[in-house]
Specification:
mainly alpha, 2 domains, single chain, Tetracycline Repressor, domain 2
Length: 288
C-alpha cells in the first residue's frame, strides 16, 4: 500500500485552513516573542494533523455514499485502496499525535483540539444533516483555530478578530453548500442529505447576509479608534484586498462553478491568492 494513498487520505492541500491559528500572533503583537511563535506553530501543526484525522473519520463513515459521488469515489477508502482497519488506525494515530503536539504548545491548545475533535464527531454522526447547523459547526471549527492561536498561547483575542473570523467562515460555508447544490443537481441529496433541505435562493440570501456583515464589520474595524489605540495605526489600506478577495470569490462561485472547496479556490486562482497575500503583507507591514 503506497504512502501516496495515505497522503491523499490525509488531504494536506486542506491544511491551508489551519493558518487561521496564526493571525493572533500578528494582531496580538507577538511576532517578536519566540515562545509564543513556537507555540503557535506547534498549534498549527497540531490542527493540521487533527483536521486530517477528521477527514479520515468522515471518509470511514461516508464510504458507501462516496462511492456514488463523481469525485469522492476516487478517495482511498471509498475506492478500497486503504481498508477500514488501516484507515481507522491511521486516523487514530493522527489524532494522538495532534493532541501530543497541542499539549507541547499548551494544555489549553490540547483542550481546544479535543473540543474540535468532539465537535466533528457530532458533525459526522448526524449534525451534518441538520440545515444551517451544519454550516455553523464548520464555522465553529474555524473559531476554535483562532482561539488556539490566541487564548491557547496566552494572547487576548480581539473581539473584532473573532467577529470577522466567524462571518468569513459562515460565508465560505454557505458558499460551499451552494456550489455543491449546483454541481450535483438532482443527485445533491443523495451525496449530501442536508442539501435536500437547501434551496439556491436561501443560500444566495445567506451568502449575501454573511458577505455584507463581514465587509461592514471589517470596514469598521479598520477605522476603529480601538484599532488605532491597539496598533498605533488604522488598517484602511488592507480593506481593498478584502473587498477584492470577496468579490473575486463571489465571481468564481456564480460564474466559474467555484466555491466547492475554499482551499482549492485559494491555491488555484492567482487573483484570489494575490489578494490574500497582499492583505497579509500589508497587515504585517502596518502592525507586524
Amino acid at each position: 500500500m503506497s504512502l501516496l494513498a495515505y497522503a491523499k487520505l490525509a488531504r494536506p492541500q486542506q491544511w491551508v485552513k489551519n493558518t487561521f491559528v496564526l493571525p493572533g500572533l500578528i494582531f496580538g503583537h507577538a511576532l517578536d516573542d519566540p515562545e509564543k511563535v513556537t507555540a503557535a506553530l506547534l498549534a498549527t501543526l497540531a490542527f493540521c494533523l487533527m483536521s486530517s484525522a477528521v477527514y479520515v473519520m468522515n471518509d470511514l463513515f461516508d464510504r458507501e455514499r462516496d462511492r456514488e459521488h463523481p469525485d469522492k469515489r476516487h478517495r482511498p477508502i471509498a475506492s478500497g485502496v486503504i481498508g477500514l482497519r488501516a484507515g481507522g488506525l491511521f486516523g487514530f494515530s493522527l489524532a494522538a499525535c495532534a493532541l501530543m503536539l497541542g499539549f507541547a504548545a499548551s494544555p489549553m491548545v490540547a483542550a481546544i483540539l479535543a473540543a474540535y475533535g468532539l465537535l466533528n464527531v457530532g458533525y459526522s454522526l448526524g449534525l451534518k444533516r441538520v440545515p444551517v447547523v451544519d454550516v455553523f459547526i464548520i464555522a465553529a471549527g474555524f473559531m476554535l483555530r483562532i482561539l488556539a492561536g490566541t487564548v491557547g498561547i496566552g494572547i487576548e483575542p480581539s473581539r473584532w478578530l473573532l467577529l470577522c473570523g466567524f462571518l468569513v467562515t459562515l460565508f465560505l460555508g454557505f458558499a460551499k453548500r451552494r456550489a455543491e447544490l449546483i454541481r450535483l443537481a438532482d443527485d445533491a441529496g443523495k451525496h449530501r442529505p442536508v442539501l435536500e433541505s437547501y434551496t439556491e435562493s436561501f443560500l444566495d440570501a445567506a451568502i449575501l447576509v454573511c458577505a455584507s456583515g463581514m465587509l461592514v464589520a471589517y470596514g469598521f474595524y479598520t477605522v476603529s479608534m480601538d484599532t488605532f489605540v491597539q496598533h498605533g495605526t488604522d488598517l484602511t489600506l488592507t480593506l481593498p484586498f478584502v473587498l477584492f478577495g470577496t468579490f473575486r470569490y463571489l465571481f468564481l462561485l456564480r460564474h466559474r462553478g467555484g466555491g466547492g472547496d475554499p482551499s482549492n479556490e485559494l491555491l488555484d486562482d492567482r487573483w484570489l491568492l494575490g489578494s490574500a497575500a497582499g492583505w497579509a503583507a500589508t497587515v504585517v507591514l502596518l502592525i507586524g
